[in-house]
Amino acid sequence: MSARPKILITGATDGIGQLAALSLARCGAHLILTARSKAKADQTCAAIEAVAPGTPVDVHFVDFSDLAAVVRTGKAIAARHPRIDVLINNAGLHAFEQRVTAHGYAEMIAVNYFAPWLLTDTLRETLVHSAPSRIVTVGSEASRQSGAFDIEKDLLDIAPFTARGSSRIYGRTKLLDIMFSLELARQLDGTGVVVNCLCPGFNVTGLGRELSFARPVAGLLTWLGIGNPERGAGAIVRLATDPAFGKQTGAYVSAKSARLLTPVAPADNEEARRQLWKKTTETLSRFR
């Protein structure tokens, strides 16, 4: 990795993504960030300057529920940065009711899975040309709550759900992220691009911000020392910078213990991962 590696991180204006960006800045990275809000982006850039003065930061504004915009942003990043050392797919959403995007997809599926898939696909050639390089994707052990998964049916499911039922849908999106990461690792094996994913553990972040009681609960947990997001952010930074993970590919790692995790079915099945990739490619072909 170069003396000042170029690291692209999505979802870097909140939670563990912001903490990871600050740590990466301290490590001397040239940061490329995606953001939805200019106010939050400005706040994050100010925080980065405070901890690591002079850090180069390039911000690209994009709403990950707009998949066409994700591809445009990926192309703009590739045009501006012929070399990218690390791509960190961190942005995520936990919606507590069903919302359907303008393109007709469930918002959580679009933001948490389709968007990182498309961004990575758009930057794939750049990352290969930048080898040795890395792709880090934030999965979750919440994937174990996803239940049975039918690729043909569930990938495009837009059925309503309640706050109580949202955890299963969120878990499904994280299952998809893990399957995506493991299959991409297989495809890129031997190219010099290593692909790994992680479970950041339980973190007190803005992920549940749609719930009215989220802020006071987060304050209580923080006071109790539960769910420190520094642990999840540290795992992201480790996969992005640790020399050991510059050689290892196809890993799914726990932030809590740094041990390898065995994903829940069907993420543990290579044929299922191939089928998901094929279906996703077909579904998103209009954006590529």
Topology:
Layout: E1 6-9, H1 15-26, E2 30-35, H2 38-51, E3 57-61, H3 67-80, E4 86-89, H4 107-129, E5 133-138, H5 151-154, H6 166-188, E6 193-199, H7 214-224, H8 229-241, E7 251-254, H9 270-283
Parallel strand pairs: 1-2, 1-4, 2-3, 4-5, 5-6, 6-7
Helix pairs in contact: 1-2, 1-8, 3-4, 4-6, 6-9
Going across the biggest sheet, name each strand in turn: 3-2-1-4-5-6-7
Rg calc: 18 Å
* Distance linking N and C termini: 29 Å
The CATH superfamily bears the name NAD(P)-binding Rossmann-like Domain
Secondary-structure class: alpha/beta
* Continuous helix count: 9
Number of strands: 7
Second-tier CATH architecture: 3-Layer(aba) Sandwich
Largest sheet: 7 strands, parallel
Helical proportion?
Answer: 40-55%
Characterise this structure.
By secondary structure, the protein is an alpha/beta fold. The chain has nine helices and seven strands, in the order βαβαβαβαβααβααβα. It has a single domain, classed as 3-Layer(aba) Sandwich (Rossmann fold), CATH 3.40.50. Helices cover 44% and strands 12% of the residues. A seven-stranded parallel sheet has the order 3-2-1-4-5-6-7, with helices on both faces. β2 (30-35), α2 and β3 form a beta-alpha-beta unit. α6 packs across α9. The chain is globular and about 50 Å long. Residues 207-227 have low confidence and may be disordered.
